[in-house]
Amino acid sequence: MERLLDEHLEKLKTRVIKMCSLVDEQVQFASKAVEEGNLEIAKLIIERDNKVDKYDLKIDKICQKIFAVAQPVAMDLRYIMSALTINNNLERIGDIAVNIAESILLIQKKPTFYSQTKLTEMFFLAQEMLKDSIDSFINSNAELAKKVIIADDRLDKLNAENDSILKEIMKQSADNIEPAVALLVMSRELERIGDHSTNIAEDVFFIVEAQLVKHKYEKYFFADENDDDIEA
Which of 8, 17, 123 is nearest to 68 (CA)? Predict the structure, then answer.
């Protein structure tokens, strides 16, 4: 039974790593499609989404099989539970890459006011958060997972700044409204990539440290900055 579990776990890890690589590439392509106004890459992202969906189903299926036949415990159990939610987050990030590709196809080119927005910075940060969350998962690195969770606040702030910038641009000319709305959609989608990357990082923390952090991460990450113990 133990050998069977090891074989299934190895297959699961291989599939999750392939899913990570595929989704990471989809987000990189989305950035390239928008930054270069490359519509062919945008179309390629949409075509490849079918592959993301297939990996999603395969990962779900092998997790169900392991639960049914191998009765995993401790770290193996935490890994499989987390693999299910990580897979779900990756599939949604794949959908977001498609949404971004559809937005650039809708407006056909990068608007002239693009450089006034925070989108380039957001693409960079969202890709970095996704890459770090994947690396933290592959290497069981709780410190890297912590970095991703903390970075999410920065991405949220950039999204809020974009919101104000693009609404102001829309007021300047009616011709700006359609492309500005498309960029607003992209900005919110990038913010969602940050949220899903954070979810992955929280799962990595759960696998490695056996601690649920979720929305109480300050308590775990910054506990040593509290001076209450000195006053006691």
Answer: 8
pLDDT of amino acid 153 = 95
Give CA 160 to chain center in angstroms.
19
**Mean pLDDT over all residues of the chain?**
89
CB proximity list for 224: less than 8 A, separation 6 or greater: none
Mean pLDDT of 100-125: 95
Amino acid at 217: Y
Look at residue 19 in the predicted model and tell me its pLDDT: 94
Q: What is the 3-state secondary structure (H, E, C) of the chain?
A: CHHHHHHHHHHHHHHHHHHHHHHHHHHHHHHHHHHHCCHHHHHHHHHHHHHHHHHHHHHHHHHHHHHHHHCCCHHHHHHHHHHHHHHHHHHHHHHHHHHHHHHHHHHCCCCHHHHHCCHHHHHHHHHHHHHHHHHHHHCCCHHHHHHHHHHHHHHHHHHHHHHHHHHHHHHHCHHHHHHHHHHHHHHHHHHHHHHHHHHHHHHHHHHHHCCCCHHHHHHHHCHHHCCHHHHC
Longest dimension (CA), the chain: 68
Please name the residue that has the structure tokens 């606040």: 153
Residue 225 confidence (pLDDT) above 70: no
CA-angle at 24, arms to 203 and 78, nearest 5°:
20
Q: How close are the terminal C-alpha atoms of the chain, in Å?
A: 52
Sign of CA dihedral 151, 81, 23, 13: positive
